[in-house]
Each structure stands twice: as structure tokens, then as C-alpha cells.
């Protein structure tokens, strides 16, 4: 199980890109942190999620 924003999901073995494709997140407007480290967008296709990982997905909101 992988904890994403505090909620457990059975996505171990998927890449970050594969996980994100199942969500409503706009990949252009988010940042992803895995176990306390920022994951660069160029690494989403190659970064595998593993049991016990903790992922934080942060959306950027524009405004003024």
C-alpha cells in the first residue's frame, strides 16, 4: 500500500505517471513529493511506487 496525501492506495508497482493518469490532477499544475523528496516531472514515468511509500501531491492554484 502507498499513502497518497494521507490516504492508503493499492498502487505499489505503478509509476507516478501511471498513478496520476487515474486521477483528476493536472500534471502541469502539481508537484509530487515521495518520502520527503521532490520528484521531478521528467522522472514521473520511471519512478516506481513501492509498498510503504508516502506521496504528497500538491496542486498549484492561480489567483491574485
How would you summarize what this structure contains?
This protein has 64 residues and is mainly β.
Kindly describe this structure.
This protein is 8% helix and 31% strand. The chain has a five-stranded mixed beta sheet with strand order 2-1-5-3-4, with no helix packed on it. By secondary structure, the protein is mainly beta. It is globular.
- How far apart lie the N and C ends? 38 Å
Beta strands, count: 5
- Proportion of beta-strand residues: 25-35%
Unreliable sequence segments: none
Q: Report the CATH superfamily.
A: Beta-grasp domain
* H/E topology pattern: EEHEEE
Helix percentage: under 10%
Largest sheet: spatial strand order: 2-1-5-3-4
Structural class: mainly beta
CATH class: Alpha Beta
Q: How many domains?
A: 1
Rg computed from alpha carbons, rounded to a whole number of angstroms = 11 Å
Largest sheet: number of strands, sense, barrel closure = 5 strands, mixed
Shape: globular
Under CATH, the topology can be stated as Ubiquitin-like (UB roll)
How many alpha or pi helices? 1
Amino acid at each position: 500500500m502507498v499513502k497518497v496525501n494521507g490516504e492508503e492506495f493499492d498502487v505499489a508497482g505503478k509509476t507516478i505517471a501511471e498513478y496520476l493518469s487515474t486521477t483528476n490532477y493536472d500534471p502541469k499544475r502539481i508537484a509530487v513529493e515521495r518520502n520527503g523528496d521532490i520528484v521531478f516531472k521528467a522522472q514521473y514515468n520511471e519512478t516506481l511506487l513501492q509498498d510503504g511509500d508516502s506521496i504528497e501531491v500538491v496542486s498549484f492554484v492561480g489567483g491574485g
